[in-house]
């Protein structure tokens, strides 16, 4: 029995140019379009690329109803997945941006809101803790709210988020952003618990190759200019001077030294620079024969 004509090779053993032999294998193109990728690998329903569940937020509803639903799901210990809590925490920031910070519109007082958000900082998932820190940053808009946060001892949980595993960069970044927001709102209320964590990272971060060490040192300098007392009492000025010696970048060294000189230049802040420690280290910096 003969073979079909399309299976027989042409005379000479080669197919004519411009005609692809039927049944031959054609390699796929190098790049697939976005539409083809979506057809071949459709996304899971109800989730986005980060794994967060897409929790709907109807801004036409009463804000108090939306906030009640958010806080109930965030505060539940069982029955709500971490990714769903993450979605509700992100909806909280959207709600604040839409209606503002009025307790009358929110339908809850700030103490109740902070207590529920505080539970997010105790969650085992770092993504939920990071979202809780972000929600607190959006909530703190004035000194009165910051005082309520400190009254409920949330600062100890913030300090815990800073001094945690170095791999939790998203959580630590949100914690440092919240710390800077606290300084901006009212630096005189800055808690010593958070200052201790910042100084601890500043002291040991270089040896541990912590990527957040420079950010912590920058925040310590910023805090030293606005609240030098809390920095000096916790040994933060000595931390700044030690990093001048260890750092090899001239622009960073200039900023660190300028912070100390600013404190020395004003009689009210000069008292915080201890002559037996900070001045000795400072004189060592200017008297060394190596180039900083």
From TrEMBL:
GO terms for molecular function: protein serine/threonine kinase activator activity. GO terms for biological process: positive regulation of phosphatidylinositol 3-kinase/protein kinase B signal transduction; TORC2 signaling. It comes from the Eukaryota. One of its GO terms (cellular component) is TORC2 complex. Pfam families: RICTOR_N. Residues 86-292 form the Rapamycin-insensitive companion of mTOR N-terminal domain. Residues 1-59 are annotated as: Disordered. Belongs to the RICTOR family. This is RPTOR independent companion of MTOR complex 2.
